[in-house]
Amino acid sequence: MGTQPLHAVHRTVLVVDVSAYSGRPRVPQEEIRRGLYAALERAFVDNGLDWSAVDHEDRGDGVLVLVPPDVPKSRVVDGVPHTLLGQLRRYNATRNEDARIRLRVAITAGEVQYDPEGVIGDDVTLAFRLLDSTPLRDALDRSTAVFALIVSDRIYTDVVRPDPALDPDSFRSVRVDVKEVHGHAWLHVPNGATPLPEPEPARPRPPRPPWQPPWARLGLAVLLLLSGAANAFAATPLAVPPCPAPVQLNVLTSAEKEEVVNRQAVDFERASRRFNPHGCKGVSVLVTRGTSAKDAAEALARGWAADEDFTGQGTEPHVWLPDASFEVDAVTDALSRNPNVAVRLDHRHSLARSPIVLGASPALAERIDQPDREFNWREVGQVAAVDTSSGAGLGAAIALAREALKGLAVDAPDAPLRLHKAAVKMTTATPCAGDVALVASEKTVVQREKDCVLLYPQGPSVVLDHPFVAVEWTSLPPNERRQRVVDLFEAHLRADPAQSAFRRAGFRDLNGGLGSRGKPRAGLPADPVVVDDATAVRAAWDAAAGPRTIALASDGSAGAEQLAADLRGLLGPHDGVTRVPLTGDVLQEAVRRKADVVVLLAAGAIGPVDPDAGGPVRAVGVGFADGACATSTALFKAADARGGACYETDGPEGPQRALEGVAKSIWGR
Amino acid sequence: MVLLLTACTSPVEDEATEGVGPITFVDGVDTSSDRQVERVVAEWNARHSLLQEVTFKEMSPATDIHRAQLMARSQDLAGVPDPSAHAAQCYDVMNMDVVWTAAFAAGGYLEPLDPAEFDVDSMHDEAVRTARYDGRLWAVPWRVDAGLLYYRADLLAAEDEQPPRTWPDLERLASELGPKYGIAGYVGQFANHEGVVVNAMEAIWAHNGDPLHPDTPDAEAGVRALADGFADGWIPQAAFEYREEESRRAFQDGNAVFMRNWPYVRPWLDRPESNVRGSKWGAVPLPGPSALGGWNLAVSRCSVHQQTAREFIRFLTGADTQLALFRLAGWAPSLKALYREPELELLGEAVLTARTRPTSAYYDELASVMRVLLRHALANPDSVETMMRTLADRVREAEDGR
Question: Where are the beta strands (DSSP E) in A225-301?
Fold first, then answer.
């Protein structure tokens, strides 16, 4: 083994040692080691250096790090110690004296040879000698700094002195006489904690004992390095540092993606072992889905402040994976209206896509199929009920609403009537059987490929874009470790293996690659529907679809009875109509019959109605004669007191306008 | 110089350690009959001024979600330069499952506690062991949990049978009486959560196996017994989705002859809506050792009102509160002395023979590996041997967090 050829490579050598590690009583060694590794890793990563790409070996009390030559030495000499300082201060601030960390740090550079047992090289040896030198130990002992740094003369000459940014004056030349090393090195103690100049006269110290076993302080690995006895210990593994606690990453996903995300979370956890040179698991991921996308969005919009957000929805998410950007926009809107909520959404890129499509039975498909596997909405009769509490379901409702309104102006006067007419076509019958179609995401339809033929809408289409959203909790201090993990998770989901999992599940990937199930059509819709206010569409659709109990109070006039008949024609299977007499206690009677709305229909003046009697119920009036809705009339007053208007039916559009007005009271939001 | 150093470093800590003020107490959702946890918090608040008010925050009943919220919050507040700036966000007192306590201690998220202050010598030794890590005490056992075997006393009496005390007896009675009365023979916790690990470990122990050496014949026999139960039908398929609450409901509704569950279900079984209230049910210790479950109370390192936090823990773990919680919520106390009460005899037998699960910072990792493989094995009896071998490899990997 020892005869294997060694090849030399240039490395910047950084060694650190925890001061008096082994001398402390009851030292929480694991805590210190974890703290040291976390601080070092941070110091490297924050300087743009990949900690897993630098070689490092655990040395019991400290760590040996070998930095590749493509990393500028100035970054190792300046940036790394600078960040390390902040990290150690932060760590120490919350620790007892027992667990605080103070470091000696030495930096050299030169040719290093790897062999199976470790690393050899004069500059590695020099680094350990400098680390052990008296000036460095004294400097730390006599200051309050959390670390003291010593660099070789060559590092000082080549790196520090030419670079004013490194503040060469803050380094002080010291004489080093350790073992075979005799010469100058340069000492630095950070932030003005520089110790007083050495009081001693410049005379050599009495020689230290000629040789002490290196493992007394540096551990076995150093013995292997410095002596020729490496082979005798070849089988002894290096000490492995303890694993730090994995970063907790809580992910809130939509039901639509739950399966893929769960699987990817497990893969990501396993991959996190690769970020860490010791194979420690770096991340612990919890995936939750909450009770529904709607509930989860509401919990986010109020800052996860309600008790039921924790008991029902789960953890405060760090990552939110909804079905569509319109869901994110809705929460962002809500948050912008309430600056007291300590949540900020970082709405990032799409991870996968899925257009809203139609699933039809083969017979229906044959009847309505147009060229290029398209369909015209007019040909669609009954559709399976759409549940807007999920993002994908809301997408389906948006597609249906857009078709009904030829746009998304849900506040237009005729919108409730039009939406209601679309919504009553919903049925609980099995989709893709007979004439019952399924309006859903492509992903859902291809999963039912046995029953459902996939058709694409002519004209504008809703596309679910499955965005990645990082959730920031602004009342908590920023957690940079987690932020990095969030970024890594996003990268993981965008990388090939995850993208291929999305395709296998029936999604299109982020580059538009088709899912591998069913027979999706190439290319995304050219004309995607833009959704400004998904919350308004959901509310409008749910109101238009909701079952209602309607109290009809008619004076029996021809116009009144005609409108009553028109209204009956609009009812869905779960709506009910109850006739109530058009008398003074009509509102009371409607409440007694548990009506949602009272529709008052009269051709002439009606007797006084007590507008405050009987509890909450909406009312709307239609007057079938000129002046029947004048503000002085009982009809107007009764409707007005209960949030409704009074419509007169004069003019050619009068009856239609009155019906729309009545529909708005019944099915408006 | 020394004086200066002391002056600079300790006040922040002393302020937090001696801090008195309002605190937040976090526990899983209160599943006790009639919300006993809420009641004891209200009792504390009635006895103290607003200055020391405790706010009770409930987490998800799914313990993995509960844990994830506590862990994330602890990590966010670890090492903040000025903890008082985030006092409102800190979960000052956290109730944590015995199996996570080590992980939180290892992460540096807990304040070490003085064993004498909480008189832990008077507490269940195994429970205290779950709260120790790296030679120090990090939490105080509050409730101790041991599985019990609940049985339909009326049906056993009608058959002139005694409650089973061995696995073969349990198997025989469950497979005979279930079909005879048209209900499930046996229910436990086999959903994709930590409960399936506990149920499998107990079966393994009952067959003299060691859950940490799953690739041995005894361990395999334990898992196989459960897998056969599913295959033969005396454990219903529905139980694959049962957590504690689902199995409680099944038994309480009169739909199972036997149930493995924790002590908290006892008060539920005697509620007016229960179909088995009164003399229709009984409970005995499990046919083998139970897994020691339970919950420990810890003080967060981010807490700036640690004195109040410690006093609140002393209040919750005091003999009065623990006895009340046993009587009203069915919880097994952590104080050994309370087991001298005659009404605690049965629980005492179960609790004192219960075995701890590995007290490892990586238990969570281990458990999540185990539950996936175990559920697969339970659903596919033919795969038991393969799964147990795979499990053995993964246990070795997970044990050191790698």
Answer: 247-253, 283-288
Question: For residue A234, what pLDDT band results from cuts at 50, 70 and 90?
Answer: very low
Rounded to the nearest angstrom, the minimum Cα separation between A241 and chain B is: 11
Tell me how far CA of residue B383 lies from CA of A49, A630, B391, in angstroms.
46, 81, 12
Residues of chain A contacting B, Cβ within 8 Å: 26, 28, 30-31, 34-35, 90-91, 93-94, 96-97, 144, 243-248, 250, 273, 278-281, 284, 286, 288, 307, 310-312, 314-316, 318, 473, 475-477, 479, 481-482
Residue B401: its pLDDT value, please?
57
Other C-beta atoms closer than 10 Å to the C-beta of B328 total 16
Q: DSSP letters of B102-124?
A: HHHHHTT-B--B-GGGGTGGGB-
CA-CA distances (angstroms) from residue A552 to A90, A581, A598, A637, A650? Answer: 71, 8, 6, 17, 21
Helix ranges restricted to H, A480-595: 480-494, 496-504, 534-545, 558-569, 586-592
All domains of chain A in start order, with CATH: 9-188 (3.30.70.1230), 220-235+243-351+467-508 (3.40.190.10), 353-465+526-541 (3.40.190), 547-667 (3.40.50.280)
Contact between A133 and A38 under an 8 Å Cβ cutoff? The reply is no
Phi and psi dihedrals of B374, rounded to 5? Answer: -65, -40
Confidence band of B1 (pLDDT split at 50, 70, 90): very low
Q: What is the pLDDT of residues B41-59, one digit of tens each?
A: 999 999 999 999 999 999 9
**Nearest-angstrom CA–CA distance, B269 and B274:** 6
Q: Could you give the ipTM of this predicted complex?
A: 0.84
DSSP, collapsed to helix, strand or coil, labels residue A351 as coil
Q: How many angstroms away from the CA of B66 is the closest CA of chain A?
A: 7
Q: Which of B217, B173, B176, B222 is nearest to B199 (CA)?
A: B222
Q: How far apart are CA A381 and CA A375, in angstroms?
A: 12
A chain contacts of residue B78, beta-carbon cutoff 8 Å: 94
- Cβ distance B364 to A284 less than 8 Å, yes or no, reads yes
How many angstroms separate the CA atoms of A482 and A437, rounded? 45
